[in-house]
């Protein structure tokens, strides 16, 4: 590994235990119109911006789906659940504290919009501690394109090779690796893809196992 000067975090499925909840919401909204989004269908959505996933749903079901109604039902269910509080993934608190103790830069690089970021982190001071935040609104080409991680690296003024990306999805890993970053995968709902495994800096089970790499 090259020297790590910055750690770049994905959010959903990595910092917060949200992917299972997202899947349930997307599937429920489809079922409400007597349609089916399978687990395999949803796996292709992980790490992809919502607007692109919605395009895929519209293409998948064509005239059979009322997309506006679908989004309303999905969003209402997610809001009701997230208002109960979204738990942090194992090891995030400890890893973040270690990063700060070592004086490393850190960034949040997510396919989610800014308002979702603010809701998830409400009640904590984590947002103010990220040196850079890249959200869906600021990126034209979302993951797996490398744009978001290149943007974060540029804003941090740290070369991609000295940035360590942490991701739970294959699309996120592709994004980070294609940007020239080092990247560790902490799988959530997805198993590591064949094209990702040989390129990954490492694949670990939780954020607790990232500490030795920084």
TrEMBL record:
It holds the Pfam family HAD_2. InterPro entries: HAD-like_sf, HAD-SF_hydro_IA, HAD_2, HAD_sf, PGP-like_dom2. Gene3D superfamilies: HAD superfamily/HAD-like, Putative phosphatase, domain 2. This is HAD family phosphatase.
């Amino acid at each position: 590994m090259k020297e790590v000067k910055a750690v770049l975090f994905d959010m959903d499925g990595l910092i917060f235990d949200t992917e299972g909840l997202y899947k349930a919401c997307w599937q429920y909204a489809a079922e409400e119109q007597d349609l089916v989004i399978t687990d395999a269908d949803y796996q292709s959505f992980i790490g992809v911006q919502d607007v692109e996933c919605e395009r895929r749903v519209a293409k998948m079901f064509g005239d059979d789906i009322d997309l506006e109604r679908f989004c309303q039902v999905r969003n209402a269910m997610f809001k009701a659940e997230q208002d109960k509080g979204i738990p942090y993934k194992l090891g995030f608190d400890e890893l973040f504290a270690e990063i700060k103790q070592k004086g490393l830069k850190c960034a949040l690089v997510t396919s989610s919009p800014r308002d979702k970021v603010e809701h998830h982190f409400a009640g904590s001071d984590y947002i103010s501690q990220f040196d850079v935040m890249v959200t869906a609104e600021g990126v034209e080409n979302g993951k797996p394109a490398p744009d978001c991680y290149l943007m974060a690296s540029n804003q941090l003024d740290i070369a991609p090779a000295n940035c360590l990306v942490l991701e739970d999805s294959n699309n996120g890993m592709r994004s980070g690796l294609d940007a020239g970053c080092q990247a560790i995968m902490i799988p959530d709902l997805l198993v590591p893809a064949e094209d990702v495994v040989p390129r990954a800096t490492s694949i670990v089970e939780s954020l607790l196992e990232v500490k030795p790499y920084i």
